[in-house]
Predict the 3D structure of the following.
Amino acid sequence: LIFILFFHPVFAQVSFRTIVPQRPVTAGESFQVQYIIENATNISNFSPPDFSGLRVVTGPHIYTDRKTNSAKNLVLTLVAKNEGKFKIPGAMCLIDGQLLTSNDVFVQVVSSKDSDESSYYLRPGEDPIKKIHNNLFLKLTIDKQTCFIGEPLVATFKLYSRLQSKSNRRKSWMGIG
């Protein structure tokens, strides 16, 4: 009995769930729907649902947890043209030989005049440094933990932002474009 208790593998239960923004989204602006699969080894035949009243912009994009390789995140970007409460049905996927369906969720879509855009714009009297500190995150990853002098390494910077931004090109570089 002790041998069985010590050497019997403990299997974590497979989890398949749907995640959408908890805050209302603005009509005409994109938002992400995430289907998260955890503690699975074989994943295939992912089938997104019919998003009635919503338009798929991109996806599904698949992201894997590099450390454990047991979690996958399937992301779709959607947009709603009209305001209202929309049901996001669960997706279906073949996970470890079983056909599973994730949970249904709801997303509230409001018109642009009803949305809280205060997080996007600097209001009169608001501290810009504090706004940037609370809404921007810079992540650095490198491809090696140790290296010798002169050895190249790859540094990747990722900028995460909750602020809305628009880029406009004013002058082309070196006369191109």
In short: Confidence is low (pLDDT under 50) at residues 3-9. The CA atoms of residues 107 and 131 lie 27 Å apart. The chain has two helices and twelve strands.
